[in-house]
């Protein structure tokens, strides 16, 4: 119940997209509740960057899994996802003609995301990118991420950082302690068996291959809907906005959703908290009402759930080996660099347009870092500040 309550609070307040979500998660799970330490969190983020699907949702599922097993993973997903799902289903039923893309309060929430991500980088960087070698890896990862942007660049950057860490930190591989004396394996345990993990991985690949066959043999609307959204959730690396072209290719050419309704829903998805993958809930609602929303939501998130449950039992064992720990020092630094790149593009470039925007983002950052106020206060202040800037602008 606690896992659901905490994740539901994040689901209501986590505006700004997947990178901002990682900042909210870091503040809640690492700094406030100490459910896992900095190193474990960065390793989990790095692992989820490798896997297809919504990375921030997978991080939440992984934390829920470590706290409460399979039930905890489901509770974490439900809590974080349901607020967004409910809002987008209501929008699909009642308000899909409303244009929210240019709302002033939405611009304020984007500036809140700037502050949230900057706070996460500030905190994580001081521990995971400390020292000349790790700071250099972080800087190079930032540069590579900004200059080389495609669906697989982050995966390759993390892999290169792992190989670099394996070479640079081989002498310190027997000591996995951070500067603050914590050890990653002490605070991140997964209470599920490898057999369960193998079953989930087999189910993931089995559904990916079987659903297209089933949809042709038994072409009902529900099966075709499940097949389309499951495939979209299975084949997207990077999450967030990357899923939009796949979803568009699945639902617009087939005539399920018009181009106008698709773009309207995308604007609505930007205005609600939680994962952008819940855009599927809106599309399912437009296509088949509430039953369609349920099918689309479960189908697009199921691959992420199966993968994180399938991989973590093996990951938890691998990460204890000294060579893996050496590699993870490089990976953790690269994660900081990737987050720093995301802070600039797309978060900063799409949000900070003039001095007034910068001042509001700076005030929100100070609220979080120096005044130690909870993130939800920054969300409210950001929305109010955006409205104020809209009136005086």
From TrEMBL:
<dbReference type="InterPro" id="IPR014047">
    <property type="entry name" value="Chr_Tranpt_l_chain"/>
</dbReference>
<feature type="transmembrane region" description="Helical">
    <location>
        <begin position="102"/>
        <end position="122"/>
    </location>
</feature>
<feature type="transmembrane region" description="Helical">
    <location>
        <begin position="327"/>
        <end position="347"/>
    </location>
</feature>
<feature type="transmembrane region" description="Helical">
    <location>
        <begin position="74"/>
        <end position="95"/>
    </location>
</feature>
<protein>
    <submittedName>
        <fullName>Chromate transporter</fullName>
    </submittedName>
</protein>
<feature type="transmembrane region" description="Helical">
    <location>
        <begin position="290"/>
        <end position="315"/>
    </location>
</feature>
<feature type="transmembrane region" description="Helical">
    <location>
        <begin position="151"/>
        <end position="169"/>
    </location>
</feature>
<feature type="transmembrane region" description="Helical">
    <location>
        <begin position="359"/>
        <end position="392"/>
    </location>
</feature>
<comment type="similarity">
    <text>Belongs to the chromate ion transporter (CHR) (TC 2.A.51) family.</text>
</comment>
<feature type="transmembrane region" description="Helical">
    <location>
        <begin position="196"/>
        <end position="218"/>
    </location>
</feature>
<keyword id="KW-0812">Transmembrane</keyword>
<dbReference type="InterPro" id="IPR003370">
    <property type="entry name" value="Chromate_transpt"/>
</dbReference>
<keyword id="KW-1133">Transmembrane helix</keyword>
<keyword id="KW-0472">Membrane</keyword>
<dbReference type="Pfam" id="PF02417">
    <property type="entry name" value="Chromate_transp"/>
</dbReference>
<keyword id="KW-1003">Cell membrane</keyword>
